[in-house]
Amino acid sequence: MRKTIVATLTAVALALSVAACSDKAKQEADAAKAAAEKAAQATKDAAAKAAEAAKTATTEAAKATTDAAAGAAQATTDAAKAAGTAAAGAAQAATDATKDAAAKATDAAKEAADKAVQAAKDAAKK
């Protein structure tokens, strides 16, 4: 009988220990689940922030590229205008130089003709 009582008490103690361990294990599992949920939420938040930062950086880079392209287009336009103005100035200078050369050539031809006429008159007198 003594063995039966000891065996019964041991069985009761073991049952209580298992039940207590089971409750503790459940609490630990709940705590681990809560920690995992917090970690998942933190990861989700970090991913959202990273995506927003990437979107902002992409938008800013696109704006900077657009601004740079507009600046380059304006510089090209300005350079083309300056080249056109310089070409027009050069053409005008060439036209003026041609007019001056033609006037000088005409004057020289007239002077040569006058001298030739005078030389012919002088030769006819002799």
Question: What do you see in this structure?
Answer:
The chain is an all-alpha fold. Helices cover 98% and strands 0% of the residues.
The structural class is mainly alpha
Order of secondary-structure elements: H
Number of helices: 1
Largest sheet: none
Radius of gyration: 54 Å
The end-to-end distance, rounded to whole angstroms, is: 182 Å
Mean pLDDT over the residues: 81
Number of strands: 0
Proportion of β residues?
A: under 5%
Q: Which runs of at least 5 residues are low in confidence (pLDDT < 50)?
A: none
* Overall morphology: rod-shaped
Percent of residues in helices comes to over 70%
Brief sketch in words of this structure:
It contains one helix and no strands.
SSE topology sketch:
Layout (H helix, E strand, L loop, with lengths): L1 H124 L1
